[in-house]
Write a structure and sequence with these properties.
ABC2_TM, disordered C terminus, 64% helix, 17 helices, alpha/beta, single chain, ABC transporter permease, elongated, transmembrane helix, two-stranded antiparallel ribbon
């Protein structure tokens, strides 16, 4: 085992790409993604405003939109220009103030204010949808108050007449609606999963033996796999621990539970990830295909975590795909520890949900043993290649 560790360390030292994957690339990726969301909340998002009425009330509503820190209204002459601006992503939403808006409001009619947003930008679209409705509702409430007062209503009963029921929405675990605490942790976990996959699959690809346009595995493949798991698991756990320390100690994001419990959950996630990669590697036995297949499998990890989109509303295929990703199982433990402060027994119960990945072991053994049927000439060429590499 000591010789195998030395061999793995020597292979790592002579592979600049592998060294980059376990050293500075994860750090740069973590810091860059955090920097993108460091503002905490999107501000001054461009919104097209089409003022067809061009009245005092429509201009007041436009000023009401501009008073919202999230919205940056931009005037357009007609609806066609605003729609074209949305298609070219120059604006994220549009508001159409209809003709005779002022007249309809003063005569107690119900005019329609058209609000559209680009749902391809999921979070931006939802944020603008709520903020646009909120800003317009505040402006229209002021007009309603003036109309009721002119009709002789008492000032004390005006607010009750307009809003008999007042709703208050309080985010339990994100009171400031900070996107850093909401989005950055799952994004970094998805990045960490992809980098861990790349590190492991690249290391496995170094063991392939080419003979007559076919790839085989060496006889000692199981010892090599065990060495790689013991070698790379602590390294990737260091990066996972760095993510937790950066978010919940350096940045000071609120954490109700113990981070050590999450490190244990990360270790279980890594083991499940290694098993999936081993199935793909032993089945394909091709470096390019293995990397491509694994990347395609784990690329939508963030979308399938259920953080920005409800899991129950996903298509059935997406829900099955989600179950294959170890990050989807880990995020449940992450949210439980960070938000609810659950203790170790509960985390261990969630980790036990990884048992289904153990069913991959017979598949790995089957493909691995099948790939070890190397012709005698291949063994000779493999030994010569090893001597040349030495």
């Amino acid at each position: 085992m000591t010789e195998l560790f030395k061999r793995e360390l020597n292979a790592l030292w002579h592979s600049p790409w592998q060294l980059a994957l376990i050293s500075y690339i994860p750090l740069i990726g973590v810091l860059a993604l955090w920097w993108l969301f460091s503002a905490g909340l999107p501000r001054q998002l461009p919104v097209a405003v089409v003022d067809i009425d061009n009245s005092q009330i429509s201009r007041m509503l436009t000023r009401q939109l501009a008073a919202n820190a999230v919205i940056a209204p931009q005037s357009y002459a007609n609806e066609a220009q605003a729609i074209e601006a949305m298609r070219q992503t120059q604006v994220y939403a549009m508001v159409v103030l209809p003709y005779q808006l002022r007249k309809d409001l003063l005569t107690a009619k119900q005019p329609t204010i058209d609000i559209r947003y680009n749902s391809q930008f999921l979070l931006v679209g939802k944020l603008l949808s709520s903020q646009l409705q909120l800003s317009l509702a505040e402006g229209l409430t002021q007009i309603g108050q003036q109309r009721l007062l002119l009709n002789g209503a008492k000032k004390a009963t005006v607010d009750v007449s307009l809003t008999p029921i007042t709703n208050q929405t309080t985010a339990l675990f994100n009171r400031n609606n900070n996107y850093v605490g909401f989005l950055v942790p799952p994004i970094l976990i998805a990045l960490w999963q992809i980098l861990s996959m790349l590190v492991f699959v690249n290391s496995l690809n170094q063991e392939l033996i080419l003979h007559q346009n076919r790839y085989y595995l060496p006889k000692q493949i199981w010892a090599l796999i065990a060495t790689k798991i013991l070698f790379y698991s602590p390294i990737m756990l260091l990066h996972g621990g760095f993510i937790l320390l950066w978010l919940y100690h350096y940045l000071g994001l609120p954490a109700a539970g113990t981070l050590v419990d999450l490190v244990l959950a990360q270790f279980a996630m890594l083991l499940a990830l290694w098993l999936i990669v081993l199935v793909i590697f032993t089945a394909l036995r091709d470096s390019a295909r293995s990397v491509s297949f694994c990347t395609a499998l784990f690329a939508p990890a963030f979308a399938f975590m259920g953080i920005t989109f409800p899991v129950n509303d996903m298509p059935l295929l997406a829900q099955w795909w989600r179950l294959v990703m170890p990050s989807s199982h880990y995020i449940d433990s992450h949210v439980s520890v960070i938000s609810y402060g659950v203790e170790l027994p509960h985390v261990l119960g969630q980790i036990s949900g990884y048992w289904g990945f153990l069913l991959l072991l017979p598949v790995i053994v089957f493909f691995g043993n099948k790939a070890k049927d190397i012709p005698r000439t291949a063994l000779t060429s493999s030994s010569l290649n090893q001597e040349v590499s030495k």
